[in-house]
Description:
54% strand; six-stranded antiparallel beta sheet
Amino acid sequence: MATVNAYERYFAAECMANGVERHAALVTLKAASEAGRIVYEASVTFFPHNSEDDFAVSYDAHYSGVLYDGSGRRSKKREQVYVENIRTCIDRLAESAGGKVFWEKPLREARFG
């Protein structure tokens, strides 16, 4: 499957994972497609972010959920809807990990792919 980061953005966050305090999160929406099938997956990865320029993402605190898995192809309209509603899924994932994403505190501009 070909995978594309349709959206990604860094936010301030808090989470304790594997004995390490995490102060930031990378939120992504990935689109994977092949042979008329598309899968959209939302994910959050908590990482230490111990200084303003520390964006070394560690993948030992990565949580994801599938938003859509079915027939179709990549759609900018559909991706926009998922990006607008990604908070619900990410908040659920973060809560299950004992963390929280501070949506009002983005650390970088959003990137769309």
